[in-house]
Design brief:
The structure is a single chain. This protein is 31% helix and 33% strand. With 183 residues, the protein is an alpha+beta fold. The protein has one domain: 3-Layer(aba) Sandwich (Aminopeptidase), CATH 3.40.630. The protein has an 8-stranded mixed sheet, with helices on both faces. It is globular. The structure holds coenzyme A.
């Protein structure tokens, strides 16, 4: 599916373009945003590489990477939103979600709106059966967002990622398509 364009009352999901580098640096360069994520703050050059990778991946067929810009009605970038279809078991139908909202927008329900848009993309547009997310054990805002959208906490992956030379566990949340459509 290309290009993606899905909207909700306060946000729209669209493809990234090279013009998003500065706005994404405001998100990925912010230590508060990446505190619980799998990487350290990125500078402008690193974000330029990220955008070039995600725009290239968006054109691969069949598409498995949906790294998308969540934008406000003003057009300003609010969040990085990602759905990556799992490829370890071809023919299976699951995808992992990732999301990072600009810090000055936290606490207004926008993070939940981003994840709801990703669930719509995964279930309603791509026809996936299982969507899951992995958060840092101390990431309470992420836990709250996923739980309130029906993503059940299902377990802990020990030593899942290494950030800054330290191994960290992840807590996995998931939701299945029938649960989404019953919600
Ligand atoms: C996680 C994130 C997207 C949440 O965005 P947000 O817009 O602030 O979340 P919302 O306003 O939709 O709030 C969702 C819930 O989380 C709760 N919440 C928000 N911040 C919280 C905090 N610091 N501690 C506990 N709960 C918190 C809210 O009260 C709300 O719960 P409620 O609906 O029951 O009141 C945002 O904090 C973020 O981008 N963090 C950095 C990146 C990140 O950690 N991404 C997730 C990787 S797994």
């Amino acid at each position: 599916m290309y290009p993606v364009l899905i909207t909700s009352p306060r946000l729209g999901l669209r493809e990234f373009t090279p013009d998003d580098v500065d706005a994404l640096t405001d998100i990925y360069g912010d230590p508060r945003v990446v505190e619980h994520m799998s990487f350290e703050p990125r500078d402008r050059d690193q974000v330029e590489t990220t955008i070039s990778n995600v725009t290239a991946a968006a054109r691969v067929e069949p598409r498995t990477e949906y790294s998308l810009a969540a934008v406000l009605p003003s057009g300003h970038l609010a969040a990085f939103a990602r759905l990556a279809i799992d490829t370890q078991h071809p023919g299976q139908s699951s995808g992992q979600l990732g999301f990072a909202l600009r810090a000055d927008l936290w606490g207004q329900g926008l993070g939940s709106e981003v994840v709801r848009l990703l669930l719509r993309l995964g279930f309603d547009e791509l026809g996936l059966y299982r969507l899951w997310g992995a958060r840092g054990p101390d990431n309470q805002p992420s836990a709250r967002v996923m739980t309130k959208l029906g993503m059940i906490e299902e377990g802990r992956i020990r030593g899942h990622i290494n950030v800054g030379g330290r191994w960290r566990d992840s807590v996995v949340h998931s939701i299945l398509e029938p649960e989404w459509h019953r919600a």
